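Hi there,

I know you've been waiting on this one. I reran it after we fixed the sequence typo, so this is the corrected version. Both the input and the resulting structure follow.
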Amino acid sequence: MPQAHLRPALFLDRDGVLNEDRGYVHRVEDFHWIAGAREAVAAFNRAGWLVFVVTNQSGVGRGYYDEAAIAALHEAMQADLAEAGAHVNAIYYCCQHPEALVDAYRHHDPPNRKPNPGMLLQAMQDWPVDPARSLMVGDKEADMEAARRAGVRGVLFEGGDLLAFLRREFPSPLVGEGGGEADG
């Protein structure tokens, strides 16, 4: 793909970045947005960035819930985002875990499970992503390691308002907020 057509991407971990991490969140009623999360996604959408969620979901492999529960939750997330004028281009998740109880999800070193970069690399294969201009936001060192291995800048989010954090950490795509489009 020609370099001129590549776009920057915002990669977001889910639990602890987009929503409160209450441990194996898989039911819509247990999902609570982090302050500024929907607004941050909308701001990056307006700036012309691709936005992806990349989330480890070992609860499936551990037998706590199934992939249908993840699909329902992610559908509800997209509906909430749409109400805020935002969208996620794609959601990538990994159910595999070295100690999964469900055989189909047991893998000694799952390539898509962070800290491995598989989900980010898959998004870069599926979409016209420019890794040099992209950003991964996570709340764990595994997220930062996945970003590094994928050739993407990673920033550690330790809580608070996600939009305010991103304005401080990475203001360039948000320069036009409130007054017009920003260059992407």
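Quick highlight: The first helix runs from residue 37 to 46.

Best,
R. S.
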